Each structure stands twice: as C-alpha cells, then as structure tokens.
C-alpha cells in the first residue's frame, strides 16, 4: 500500500498524487468481556470486499480504553491481536484504517462507554442514569464532569496519573501496530468534553437560547408555538433556529470553549503525540474538535507540537450533527444548521493549514426523507476536498436502501493537485478538474458506483470492475497541465 503523508492541506501518496478518502466508522464500544476479549467485529467475517466495491478505502477503527486496559498496566492482548489481524485484512483489500480510542460520557460507569472503572474517578458523586437521551450526563451530570476533570488534571490512581496510563496504553498499542501497511494514524480521544466547565457551557447555551428566542427578530415565537403545538410536523418548529440563529446562540460560549481547547485539550494532544513518536515515525496524528464544537462553536486548538516543534503529520478530524440526529425526526435535519457547523470547521482547517478528514457525520432513519440532507453534506465535503468516515457501520448496513446515497462517484487518487470535483445527482454527471505537474507512472483513479454512459477526457482511460459487481475504478492517463474529466451516467 502507498504510504500517505500530509503536505499542506492535502493528503499525498508516495507517487505525489493527491488522495481523497471515504469510508466508515467500525466501532466496538464494549468494555472488557472475559468470554469475548477480542475486537467486536471478526476480521474473518467482515465484508472487506464489498467495502472496496463501494469505493471505501478508509476505516475509523474504534475500541475503548476499558476493553484495552481492564486492569491498570495490564493490556488485553486478545484485543490487540484482533486489531492487528483487522489491519492485515485491510491491507489485503487496499483499505486504510486509523485507530480511534472511543468514549461517550466518559465510561460505562457514567452510563456511556470508554474508560475502565478504575480510571473513572468521580469523587463524591454517583452517576445517574439518563432519562431521555444518552448525552444527558454531558449537560448536568456531576459524576461525569468530575471524571473528566480528574482525567484532564492527570489525577493519580495508584500513584500514577490517569493521562500517564492513557499514554502508556497508546504506546503499547502503537508498538504492536506501527509497521502495519494499512495503518493510517491515531485518533486519541473521541469528542473530548471539558468536564465541569462543560456544565457551565451548557447553562450558558440555555440562557442564550432563551434570550435569542425572545429578542431576535429572526425567531417568530407565534409560528414557533403553532408549529410545535398544533402541527402534524412538530420538528419543523426548529426551522426557526437555522444556521445563523444557532450561531448567534452559541457565540456566548466561544471563550469558554477556547479556554478548554488551549489549556487542557491541546496539551493533551501534544502529550499523546510525543508518546507515539517515542515508538514510531509512522502514522498521522488526528485532532478532533471538543464535544461542544459539534454545534458550531469554533475549535480553538493550536497545531500539535512535540518539544516545541510542529508535528508535520497531523489532520483535523471534526464531527457535526444536526439537532435531529438519533431521532425518528432526522428527515427534518437542517442543511442550514449543519452547513454552518461545517463551514466553521472549514475556518478551523484553514487556520491550522492541515488536511481535513470528517471523522463522524450522518445518521440514518426510516424512509428516504433524509436522503437530500445526506447529499447536501456530501456536496459540502466535495466542495472543500474533504475526506470522511460515515457514522456508523452495523451488521447488514451494506444491504440497506440508503447505501445508494452513501455510495457515489469521487476521486481516489489524482496525478497532481485537485482544483475541484463535483457530483451532480440530478444530472447524473461527475466532473473533476486538476493540475498535473509532471508525467506520472501511476494513473488518476476515480471511483464510480455504476457503469458510465460516457466519459470525456484528454487522455486514455481504463474501466476496472471491482469485486462484488457494485462499483468500478476508472484509471486515467493524462498529460501535464490542466485536465478535466467528465463522467456521465
């Protein structure tokens, strides 16, 4: 497999081609189970072939700290072995993977997933089970807050700091995986939460929501009440809170989020990156946004540094979801709201001057009313030349009707620098423009999910049917200069 490196705001392979990646999260959220200690998705049964046939060439491979280190300083070798085997299978099928240490509301003890019980230090507080949505402990869960506080403070357990345990866990895993050709990089901590300061952020958001609703002329309270109380489509009431209004509400929290990002999250990433670099020079460092930047509050991290020097191989990996996510009302998801959030992430990427790979996005629901929203998001990613991993794989997902939306034409490897690419779903046309700077011995590769009716380009091309009879790779040999490829379906 080609070794991938970061050059400016692009991913580039060893041939000098710009690369765009697309794939899915494959996440095992379990804590340690004695009878099933390995990774939750059997590498021998995983549908790698169909993944590739759908054009997927990257996986966000998620595990939990609790499963990896159930006892302090003692690692789950069965899990490590199965992750290594998964990476070997990825290599066989030409698919990259980056490792994600996943958590939600810190740990199973806090009614989520992530850290082991021994590393969940809640002091005097006892977690309370959420009543309505899984994320409630992020808003007013004192036990969850205190667990995060102790983690960010590197509070000691058995005379060793929690972050010291965490860094050593990563070093042990990296030692086992560092030479795997499919290994893409390291996503250290899913959606970090500020802890007690997060409760203050939430309370500030609620106060700002009330004030904005009362005084902002863009919010029509009468229509809001009519829609919310009497309409058959009650979720449409939230259309009063489109992107610009939501950003007005969240602005009040900018300074609180900035304080966390700069004082706690950035030093944490620097520490984890330094730990990995003690073991290997391979792999790209992933920088996610904090939990509250999922709603459009700017991510304020500084670039990852090691001993004061900027790490050359790093990527911004933001997440964003609409308010309707994880509900039957997902078909009412707002393009304006999520578009605003991803536009904010774009500004962060431009500030950092590194590539962007969207770590989580999307969802699913009954029916097809949410399909246009997914296409909107994919068009947004294409306009920014962003790679992505969709949330989230489950058994039989590849057989679902909505896969016809998730699977679509895109560039995989381009000889030179991409100017733009676009897929027009209505017209059935894919267009790619790029500047080729030299002669290449390898082709430009475009994935398509069905056989084209017509291909226009200045050069030669070859259509390769992928295993599974679902998609095709089209290989183009083109000349130096500006090139345009048009594929019509």
Task: Provide structural commentary.
By secondary structure, the protein is an alpha/beta fold. The protein folds into 2 domains: 5-199 and 261-407, TIM Barrel; 412-489, Immunoglobulin-like (Sandwich), CATH 2.60.40. Helices cover 32% and strands 21% of the residues. The chain is built from 13 helices and 23 strands. The protein has helices spanning 48-53, 65-68, 77-92, 137-140, 142-152, 162-177, 196-215, 221-230, 243-250, 254-277, 335-352, 371-384, 403-406; strands at 5-7, 10-12, 18-19, 22-27, 58-64, 96-102, 156-157, 160-161, 183-187, 284-287, 305-306, 309-310, 314-316, 357-358, 387-390, 410-414, 417-424, 429-436, 444-448, 454-456, 459-465, 472-478, 481-488. The strands form 5 sheets. It has an 8-stranded parallel beta sheet with strand order 13-10-9-6-5-4-15-14. Strands 1-2-3-16-19-22-21 form a 7-stranded antiparallel beta sheet, with no helix packed on it. Strands 17-18-23-20 form a 4-stranded antiparallel beta sheet. α6 crosses α10. The protein is globular. It starts with a strand and ends with a strand. The mean pLDDT is 97.
* CATH hierarchy class name of the largest domain: Alpha Beta
What percentage of the residues does DSSP assign to strands (E)? 15-25%
Our Rg estimate from Cα atoms comes to: 23 Å
- Give the N-terminus to C-terminus distance in angstroms: 30 Å
The counted number of beta strands is 23
Structural class: alpha/beta
CATH H-level superfamily title of the largest domain: Glycosidases
Question: Which word captures the global form?
Answer: globular
Low-pLDDT ranges:
none
């Amino acid at each position: 497999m080609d070794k991938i490196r970061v050059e400016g705001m692009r991913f580039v392979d060893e041939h000098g081609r710009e690369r765009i990646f697309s794939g899915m999260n494959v996440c095992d959220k379990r804590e340690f189970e004695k009878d099933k200690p390995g990774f939750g998705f059997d590498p021998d049964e995983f549908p790698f072939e169909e993944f590739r046939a759908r054009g997927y060439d990257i996986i966000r491979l998620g595990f939990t700290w609790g499963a990896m280190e159930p006892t302090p300083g003692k690692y789950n070798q069965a899990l490590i072995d199965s992750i290594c085997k998964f990476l070997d299978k990825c290599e066989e099928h030409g698919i990259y993977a980056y490792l994600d240490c996943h958590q939600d509301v810190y740990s199973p003890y806090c009614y989520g997933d992530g850290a082991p019980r021994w590393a969940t230090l809640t002091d005097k507080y006892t977690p309370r089970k959420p009543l309505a949505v899984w994320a409630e402990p992020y808003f007013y869960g004192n036990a969850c807050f205190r667990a995060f506080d102790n983690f960010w403070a590197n509070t000691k357990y058995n005379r060793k700091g929690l972050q010291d345990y965490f860094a050593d866990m990563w070093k042990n895993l990296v030692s086992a995986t560092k030479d795997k050709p499919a290994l893409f990089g390291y996503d250290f901590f899913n959606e970090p939460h500020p802890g007690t300061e997060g409760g203050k952020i939430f309370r500030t958001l609620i106060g700002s929501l009330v004030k904005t609703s009362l005084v902002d002329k863009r919010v029509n309270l009468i229509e809001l009440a009519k829609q919310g109380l009497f309409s058959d489509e009650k979720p449409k009431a939230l259309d009063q809170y489109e992107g610009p209004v939501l950003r007005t509400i969240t602005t009040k929290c900018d300074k609180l989020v900035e304080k966390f990002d700069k004082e706690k999250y950035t030093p944490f990433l620097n520490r984890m990156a330094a730990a990995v670099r003690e073991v290997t020079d391979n792999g790209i460092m992933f920088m996610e946004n904090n939990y509250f930047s999922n709603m459009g509050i700017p991510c304020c991290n500084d670039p990852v540094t090691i001993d004061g020097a900027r790490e050359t191989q790093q990527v911004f990996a933001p997440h964003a979801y609409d308010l309707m996510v994880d509900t039957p009302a997902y078909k009412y998801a707002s393009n304006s709201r999520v578009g605003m959030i991803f536009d904010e992430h774009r500004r962060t990427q431009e500030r950092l001057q590194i590539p962007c790979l969207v770590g989580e996005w999307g969802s699913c629901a009954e029916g097809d009313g949410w399909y246009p929203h997914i296409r909107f998001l994919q068009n947004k990613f294409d306009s920014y030349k962003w790679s992505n991993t969709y949330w989230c794989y489950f058994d039989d997902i590849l057989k679902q009707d909505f896969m016809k939306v998730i699977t679509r034409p895109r560039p995989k490897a381009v000889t030179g620098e991409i100017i733009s690419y676009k897929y027009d779903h209505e017209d059935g046309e894919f267009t790619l423009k790029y500047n080729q700077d030299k002669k290449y011995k390898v082709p430009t590769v475009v994935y398509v999910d069905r056989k084209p009716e017509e291909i226009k380009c200045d050069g030669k091309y070859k259509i390769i049917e992928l295993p599974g009879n679902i998609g095709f790779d089209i290989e183009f040999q083109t000349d130096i200069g500006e090139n345009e490829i048009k594929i019509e379906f």
